[in-house]
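Sequence design from tokenized structure. All designs in this work follow the same two-part layout: the structure record, then the generated sequence. An example of the structure record is given first.
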């Protein structure tokens, strides 16, 4: 249960979540680039759909979060992507609520940001160690916003059936993805439980149950994220935002 409904949390927790999420979104929107929008939209849609599929587990339920994957691939752009998906879920399906939207965004987006800060440099080092031919060509600083998409299409057409990167690099990518998926879930569980505990002692048992149910989810999401990252590096590393690697940013 990553979506806390309205009427559960105390006013100080709601205010804190709103202020934190607003500040983070302001920073993220200032850094958002037009070239990042297509990838952010795809991952936001994946997050939107996966969050709608819940599996009952004891008194709670769990669903894929994908915030570790979003943080690893998008960086700061993961914050507005998560916010938009949560807003649409609250409006159209009643998941969570509008008053608690700031807290739900904070609980999912902050872990994504931590994953980006801790693990994106490691993934960038793996990508930087790959031959330039595997990166899909060179990127000019003055390239148009569509150059990323055209690069992907041309790279895919010329390398059909080929594998990119060494087995060691793919293993490193898998381990980084595994860590990103597990870290995103664990941090979300900690923040979710903390939000409930800060709202009153009666929520203590529910917070502990939720924390326990997130353990198998962390393992599942870690494996899924690791497989996705290793697969992308093997077939189309441009989708891992190699434009940032080539420009040295």
């Amino acid at each position: 249960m990553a979506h806390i409904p309205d009427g559960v949390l105390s006013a100080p927790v709601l205010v804190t979540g709103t202020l934190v999420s607003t500040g983070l979104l302001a920073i993220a929107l200032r850094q958002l680039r037009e070239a990042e929008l297509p990838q952010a939209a795809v991952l936001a849609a994946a997050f939107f759909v996966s969050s709608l599929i819940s599996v009952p587990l004891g008194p709670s339920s769990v669903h894929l979060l994908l915030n570790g994957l979003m943080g690893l691939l998008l960086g700061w752009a993961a914050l507005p992507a998560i916010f938009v998906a949560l807003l649409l879920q609250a409006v159209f399906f009643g998941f969570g609520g509008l008053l608690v939207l700031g807290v739900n965004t904070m609980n999912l987006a902050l872990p994504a940001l931590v994953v980006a800060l801790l693990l994106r440099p490691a993934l960038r080092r793996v990508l930087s160690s790959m031959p330039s031919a595997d990166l899909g060509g060179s990127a000019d600083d003055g390239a148009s916003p569509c150059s990323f998409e055209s690069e992907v299409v041309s790279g895919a057409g010329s390398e059909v059936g080929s594998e990119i990167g060494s087995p060691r690099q793919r293993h490193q990518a898998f381990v980084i993805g595994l860590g990103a998926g597990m870290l995103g879930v664990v941090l979300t569980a900690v923040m979710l439980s903390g939000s409930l505990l800060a709202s009153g002692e009666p929520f203590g048992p529910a917070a502990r149950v939720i924390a326990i149910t997130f353990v198998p989810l962390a393992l599942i999401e870690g494996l899924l994220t690791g497989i996705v990252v290793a697969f992308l590096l093997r077939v189309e590393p441009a989708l891992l935002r190699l434009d940032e690697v080539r420009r040295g940013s």
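The CA atoms of residues 92 and 230 lie 34 Å apart. We note this feature because it recurs in several other targets discussed in the main text.
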